[in-house]
Amino acid sequence: MKRILCLLWLSISLSTAVSPALAVPFKKLDKPPLGEQWFGIYVDNERVGFYHQMISEVADGYRMEGDGSVRMKVMGFSKESSTHETYQVGKNLALRSFDVEQAHNGTLSHVSGKAGEGILRVKCESNGKVSEKHIKSRGELYPGPALNILPLMRDMTPGRSYKIATFDAEDVKVKDVRISIQGEEAAPDGHPALKMRNNLYPFVSNDIWVDAQGNTLYESVRDGLVTTKAEDPKLLGPFIAGLVVSKKDLIYDFSLVRVDPPLHDLAKLTGLVLEINGWNDDLPLLQGGGQFVEKSGVGRIVVKTGSLAAPTAPSPATTKESYLKPADRIESDDPLIVAKAKELAAGKHDAREIARVLAAWTADWLKDTVEDGGSALASFKERSGNCQTHARLYTALARAAGIPTRFVSGLVYREGKGFLYHSWTESLLGDAWVAVDPTYNQLPADPTHIKFFEGSDSEDMTPIITIIGRIRILVQQAKY
């Protein structure tokens, strides 16, 4: 978890009076806490990012994985960062190997290497250039995610301190960090905790509270200016979903799903068969809109799209009616929306023809931005917004024109990159749902549109937190 905080230059301390010894006993740990944790990152109590940590046991030690993204401005300094990191450590948490992908203020880099025999061998890739360096180290090195756990596997006596050498993948340097044990003290949220302090950030205190299992509960820098808090992923879900599809920050890069083999000639692509691994089996498998999905094993599904998708049953009349009604931020009954839909549909009687005109108009009317333009009506007036905005405005216009339409989200392929999270729509044309992408003016949308979620509210995409950074895609068939 320490890794994402290093990306901020600052990160995490709250001044709190020391409380009496707590009832929960803090005993020396034999191993780090296994499993996952989610954290929200805040500046002046405003959420500006998140971090996700996973620790698993392997044959000769542990694997520490982390993903995170942050966008912040503090004291005149601004920074946008995202990271995906994997560290292999020994039983004592000492670093053995690492692989870190980072994006800082638009600059992408990949740092990997191994530690052993007093030498850290590092390979750096950035801006198309590759370099290698050997860094000498005295004794064992420890990755950032191990710093808050290490003291609990040693001596936790108040007043005890440790000088620990850690590897900073952003600066590609070995740094000495001093960690001191403050004693048992309730975390700012009231949970029993062991408080520690380190000098990871120059000139400011960095206070940390961990529970008896070694899980970080709370961190604070500069008396709470920047804080990191352990959070329920359900609370972080809407925030992360908004970042993913709005492409507000570098989660846009972090959330990229690479595909093997890469796709090409998208304009000629007519159908796909994809195997998705790392799927959350509690999520529904959405059909229709040129897509057919079926389970193929635990945590594994097969998605067929376009000409390779099996046909789906027509939508019941009751379902059609629900997709004609106005909804939150989809004001299909507003006079301005109704008038524009009527104007665009004038002289046209075929639903597909009307939908095509509405999609083309929406794509032309809205200036594509990284910010969510808000409701359909607001974006209609302001004329700007991201893919979510395009989808809301088109949905409102289509419903006003009498075409049942639903808002959907999932993945779309960008040539030369991979699959990125995106929002579009589906309209009921005839007796079939047809994918319509008003951002890219596609009807039908190309076969790389893979639908995971339905609904226009950020809460509807909250389940994305269960798959982001976890799924892998294998192309089984591409039809041209």
Short description:
With 480 residues, this protein is of the alpha+beta class. Helix content is 16%, strand content 41%. The protein has a 15-stranded mixed β-sheet. A five-stranded mixed β-sheet has the order 16-26-17-19-18, with no helix packed on it.
Class from secondary-structure proportions = alpha+beta
Shape annotation:
elongated
CATH class value of the largest domain: Alpha Beta
Report Rg. 25 Å
Which strand-content bin applies to the residues? 35-45%
- What is the count of helical runs? 8
Q: What is the number of beta strands?
A: 26
**CATH T-level fold name of the largest domain:** C8orf32 fold
Low-pLDDT runs of 5+ residues are 1-23
How many distinct domains? 2
Q: Based on the structure given, which CATH architecture of the largest domain is correct?
A: Roll
Helix content: 10-25%
Strands of the widest sheet, in order across it, are: 8-7-6-5-4-3-2-1-15-14-13-12-11-10-9
